[in-house]
Automatic annotation (TrEMBL):
It comes from Gryllus longicercus. This is Protein sleepless. GO terms for biological process: regulation of synaptic transmission, cholinergic; sleep. Pfam families: QVR. Residues 1-29 form the signal peptide. The keyword Lipoprotein does not apply.
Amino acid sequence: MVLSMQLCWTLLPPILLLVMLVTPRLGAAIDCFKCVSINGQYPPCDDPFHNNHTDAILEAPCKGGRKGRNGLFPATACIKLAGVYENGDRITVRGCALDSGTLTTDTEIVRMSHCGGFMYDNRYVRGCLQSCDDADACNSAHVLSSRGYETTATALLSTALAGMLTAMLTENIA
């Protein structure tokens, strides 16, 4: 079925609105909880996390360091580290970070969550470092996730635009 030009132009505004709604806010920082708790010394930071008493640890907008640059920059993701030091001390850290723009995922903590062993403040920690970018204060949850709707929105948008382009080309050829 070939769409008419009038139908294409009728569908264009709602499609553009959908794109604007699902596209991340460029240049805007995410709000994240920032805190550290070792062995439960700061309960508002520990799991289970209750954000009804944590306004003091919500940084809005959250800013973080960038690899190879001085200063703080608007964060693109919230992070949560939960683990255990070699001596058995438990640690929970909530904060934010930003993608530094390198080409490899393994050097960018905001692109993928990691579990295993790593160094934190020159001490070996076994645990998980999780990142999220789907909502302000997303590092409050025990299990963090990242955007899942972007792939679906991109597929729908691509299909709609391909249909509109096909319709326009068909009308111009006929």
